[in-house]
Amino acid sequence: MHYLAAGSGWKRVGFGLLVSSAMCAPVQAQDAAPPTVEPATAPAATVDEDVIVVTATKRSENLQDVPIAITAFSTKTLDDLQVDSFDDYAKLVPSLSFKSSGPGSANVYFRGVASGENANHSASLPSVGTYLDEQPITTIQGALDLHVFDIARVEALAGPQGTLYGASSQAGTVRIITNKPDLGSLYGAVNLELNKVSHGDFGYTGEGFVNVPLTSNIAARVVGWYRKDAGYIDNVPGTLFFPTSGITFDNFDLAEDNYNDVETYGARAALKIDLNDNWTITPQIMAQSQVSNGSFAEESGLGDLETMQFNPERYDDKWVQAALTVEGKIANFDVTYAGSYMKRQNDGEFDYADYAYFYDALYGYGAYFYDNNGDLINPNQYIQSDDAFTKQSHELRLTSPADKRLRLVAGLFYQRQTHRIIQNYIIDDLTDDFTVPTTESNIWLTDQKRVDRDYAAFGELAFDITPKLTVTGGGRLYKFDNTLVGFFGFNSNYSSNPIYNCALFGPPSFGGACNNVDKRTKGDGFVHRLNATYKPNDDLLFYATWSRGFRPGGINRRGTLPPYLPDFITNYEAGAKISFGNGSHLNVAAYQLNWSDIQLSFLGANGLTEIRNAGDARIRGIEADLFLRLAPGLTWSTGASYNNAKILNDFCQFSNPDNDCTIPGPDDRDADLLPETNSKLAPKGTRLPLTAKLKGSSRIRYEWNATSSMKAHIQALITYEGSRRRDLRLFENSIYGNMKAYTSIDLAAGLDKGDWSVDLFAKNLFDVRGEITKGIQCVEAVCGDPGGATAIGPKIYTTVTRPRTIGLRIGRKF
């Protein structure tokens, strides 16, 4: 690994700053956005210098009055920290962890609820839901990576949110709240940015919005952006030798410095229509195109920020979402309808030469790859993907008056999301005898359609036992209905596995050679939330919560494997929120999460993802956030989290109710149905992967009047991420190695004069190589080359933090 830390001294200093002020971060909404006015049930409400208003409970409430662990970033905070994308704000939420191989591919986790799943298209739904305003935008393979601009607020809700937010909010929810059209006046803003990445190229951003009152009761808001992120990974020239055929080929035509650049552009347009004093309609459409070139990982065995890829790599992520929110009153109840329809198209090209090389070098697979003349060909493989998503959601809810002793939130929810999966694994000039039918030169084809349907009725009822003591009970009745239909596999001439023989199956429903998978799984259930809140005065709040979150079951595409069942998280949490005046506060939450029937996914035979319900885990942790206004213009905010996440049972290759790895498993891979030897992949007490025990951030900012007409500011941000396991399984994790701890420092300074602003900033000042995730192209026991049997050794790809980036941003308001 090519890991360049800021040194152990920096780690001690960084962690000392974090611990000196707090332990964890339910809230960092320290900086307020300019005042806005929204209907009572809208996603935003009045915000002033000392009050942050959130809508996490489907009501507009002061953040310090909400008995939930929430991290919230206002428009001002997002601007101050030059937040452009998910990666920028994710590092600021101590209870949040993620893995990512590049833009548009992040998988998000809260409070250590991560099993190391590979996020395959046929695998589990995400455990964290992402919302854009009132509408969910979590697709089957993860959330949208939208550009952050003209955003009113980002809210991160830690812990199960199953009652109000449902299936994909098992461990937490992220809500991105846009600024809405304003009937008050015509105004807008434009920002221009130029930046330089160390070891890379220049990047730049242009973004702007305009708010236009059209009539006395109609306003429009239009937002647009274009961002070019500079590349910093070099695809170095090299050759690859396949020993079976003696063929050597090179990547000279693809070698390029700084080849992982990204181009992002998009727009958002919204209308606000006040039909009368009680009813408002807000239609909105948003679209974005993001084109990523190259790889975002450095390759083991090469130099710093280097890789050696032999096939083109590119990922195009395009999506459009149309949303409609209707708000009004029936009697004294607030009524909200929130609906949306989204289309997302992902097209990709990916290198798969490692797979070809290792299987040839270790097992001589190159002997099977020849053309129609019987001559051996280059066994090099590459992938071309075509993933099309649709998602529609509808929610209708009623909210009783907030000033009553008994308060109700209740609603109905429906969601349907589809994923048309086309994955082409290609070997050029492959013989027709081995080419998958309906393709030109595929050794493997996945052509499937997945549909996930969710239905729910939910509600929460709060009652003030006394003016200081409130109890809340909530629940969600849910039902899921999921299907997977289509073809996956080799040509039956290449493999003896009968599941790839289309003569045994029915005709295809859409593409592919046949339907060798046609499965459906259904289920229903109930999750709850019970809460007691004690507020002795305006500055103190104490709460205790018992809640549950869930993730629906799904389908294993390997025909002999049964569907996997839902998994559940039960959360026991106690917290306190202490206000000191002027917006200063200390918020603390301690919790235990019991995770049962874990949906664990891993690569099985032929590199196919398998999902099994594999025992239980327990996470114990604490989060805290301290924000202080130390002096006029001087603020300090610190948050950190501690998570001790472990499995409670032995993890066996073949799970059973007793979690006893000495019990053989059925042979669900071959046709002979003989017992399969079981093995212990990880003993109980093993840490869950991907989440550090310790994570935190600390920021100090000073604003002052430089002259009578000019304001100035300086700020420093330090973030710390502890070491993390890459994989739950011991053998596989020994190949990857743990992801190392790192500390990063950002600095910024700027001036504001009238409508103009200028900021100079440096992100990752000491150019630290923070490890975000590690990957490999095939099964670890093969591409990881644990025995050192090949000439090139293991090929492990480590996605790292962006190198030091220095930028200048100029803004103009009008």
Task: Give the topology.
Layout: H1 8-21, E1 53-54, E2 61-62, E3 70-74, H2 75-80, H3 86-90, E4 96-99, E5 107-110, E6 128-132, E7 135-136, E8 138-139, E9 142-143, E10 151-158, H4 162-165, E11 172-178, E12 187-197, E13 202-213, E14 218-229, E15 234-235, E16 239-242, E17 247-250, E18 262-274, E19 280-293, E20 297-299, E21 306-307, E22 314-330, E23 333-351, H5 353-363, E24 382-399, E25 406-426, E26 442-464, E27 469-489, E28 517-537, E29 540-551, E30 567-581, E31 584-596, E32 599-603, E33 609-613, E34 617-631, E35 634-647, E36 651-652, E37 665-666, E38 675-676, E39 680-682, E40 694-705, E41 710-721, H6 730-736, E42 742-753, E43 756-763, E44 771-775, H7 780-783, E45 797-800, E46 805-813
Parallel strand pairs: 6-11, 15-21
Antiparallel strand pairs: 1-2, 3-10, 4-5, 6-7, 8-9, 10-11, 12-13, 12-46, 13-14, 14-18, 16-17, 18-19, 19-22, 20-45, 22-23, 23-24, 24-25, 25-26, 26-27, 27-28, 28-29, 29-30, 30-31, 31-34, 32-33, 34-35, 35-40, 36-39, 37-38, 40-41, 41-42, 42-43, 43-46, 44-45
